[in-house]
Write a sequence for this structure.
């Protein structure tokens, strides 16, 4: 009797054809002369921007504004040492200010950099009744927007930032209807894509347009951002072209492959190939990488098996039981470990142990990704007969409507973001470069 399931046993999805078609396969890169000129121009512009950064030293408002522009335009990775030095100076030399915009900008940039600055700096913007001052509503929209962005860096227990987020969100939604471009565009964008929850690279295109239309103080920075954006786009297309063309298949454990259904064999072979490549590259310096990568994959497969049993048994577990499995199938731990494999000696054995021990930032990231995916795909997946998600589990366990379940799950997402923010502060001995990979995973899911 065949072990392969019949077609009617498998759930099928009628996805639309990919919009890219053969775009990446047929991609033709720039010629060497053009590429060489652009790369040389990038180097010249980088030196101009470095000089601008040095010129701003000792002038906090200029430092903050310029660093913010460098980050928003997607070129901060060229100036990591300079940005760290500038923000370190600002952290060490704090001066009181009544300017809400710059207080908020300082707070956000320092928190993003991992500095554990106090949220008490915002108390001066409250009135004698403990509420944020009404004069901020109409007289300082830029300040309101800055406070809104800063509030997204909150951690557990920072009530003033919880209040700030409610206050600014409420009023910015009203004010945006009466603002002019480009401020209206910036507020509208921020309400849906706050800086903390966006990938720098994906937001760069929007910010380039805004920076261009504003009275930009640094033409070199704008030109660098445009050129860098285009060069990276070409690089991504080149890499995708290679990936599309080259799908090598080798073996990891060939003894098991014949026992799998036919539709699973290509996937399994591709998996064997990927892990064999890791072994070949990392065996000498970091042989432990492969062990951790395999363990993470085994854990994910076990969790997928549990979800399959729930589906075939028509079981709707409690939210707690569901999350104990679904946080694993979010694949945050798996892909974090795989990404750390490519980070070189920075990702030590202790770092891999830390990831597998499920620290708070990992659990929070998994929670955010799982719950947001569940809420986004809930209706579609139920129409095609998918297993129960957190939405169904919550509705059944608490006897509430879908809308109420969404509200409660969104609260858990917000709590998760607080834990992610806490985990990115410099109180733990994990390099910021590694933490940024976890943060980027959270951002990626937030915007998709």
């Amino acid at each position: 009797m065949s072990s392969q399931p019949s077609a009617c046993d498998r759930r099928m999805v009628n996805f639309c054809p990919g919009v890219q078609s053969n775009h990446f396969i047929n991609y033709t890169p720039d010629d060497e002369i053009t590429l060489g000129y652009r790369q040389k121009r990038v180097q010249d512009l980088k030196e101009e921007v470095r000089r601008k950064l040095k010129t701003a030293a000792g002038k906090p408002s200029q430092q903050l504004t310029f660093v913010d522009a460098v980050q928003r335009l997607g070129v901060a990775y060229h100036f990591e040492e300079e940005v760290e030095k500038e923000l370190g100076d600002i952290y060490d030399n704090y001066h009181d200010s009544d300017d809400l915009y710059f207080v908020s900008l300082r707070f956000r940039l320092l928190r993003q950099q991992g500095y554990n600055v106090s949220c008490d700096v915002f108390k001066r913007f409250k009135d004698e009744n403990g509420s944020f001052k009404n004069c901020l509503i109409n007289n300082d929209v830029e300040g309101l927007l800055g406070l809104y962005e800063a509030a997204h860096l909150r951690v557990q227990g920072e009530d003033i930032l919880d209040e700030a987020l409610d206050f600014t969100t409420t009023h910015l939604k009203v004010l945006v209807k009466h603002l002019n471009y480009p401020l209206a565009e910036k507020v509208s964008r921020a309400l849906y894509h706050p800086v903390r929850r966006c990938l720098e690279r994906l937001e760069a295109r929007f910010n380039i347009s805004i920076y261009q239309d504003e009275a930009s103080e640094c033409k070199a920075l704008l030109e660098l951002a445009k050129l860098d954006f285009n060069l990276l786009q070409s690089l991504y297309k080149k890499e995708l072209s290679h990936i599309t063309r080259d799908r090598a298949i080798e073996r990891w454990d060939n003894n098991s492959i014949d026992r799998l259904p036919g539709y699973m064999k290509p996937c399994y072979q591709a998996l064997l190939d990927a892990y064999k490549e890791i072994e070949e590259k990392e065996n000498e310096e970091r042989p432990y990488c492969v062990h951790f990568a395999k363990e993470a994959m085994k854990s994910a497969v076990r969790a997928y098996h549990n979800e399959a049993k729930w589906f075939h048994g028509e079981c709707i577990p409690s939210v707690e039981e569901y999350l104990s499995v679904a946080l694993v199938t979010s694949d945050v731990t798996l892909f974090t470990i795989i990404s750390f494999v490519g980070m070189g000696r920075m990702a030590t054995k202790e770092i891999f142990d830390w990831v597998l021990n499920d620290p708070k930032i990992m659990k929070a990231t998994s929670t955010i990704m799982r719950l947001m995916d569940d809420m986004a795909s809930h209706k579609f997946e139920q129409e095609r007969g998918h297993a129960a998600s957190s939405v169904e589990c919550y509705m059944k366990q608490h006897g509430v409507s879908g809308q109420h379940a969404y509200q409660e799950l969104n609260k858990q997402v917000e709590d998760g973001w607080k834990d992610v923010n806490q985990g990115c502060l410099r109180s733990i001995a994990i390099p910021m470069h590694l933490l940024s990979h976890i943060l980027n995973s959270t951002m990626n899911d937030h915007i998709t």
Observations:
- Residues 125 and 236 are 45 Å apart (CA to CA).
- The first helix runs from residue 32 to 55.
- The two ends are 43 Å apart (CA to CA).
- The chain is about 65% helix and 0% strand.
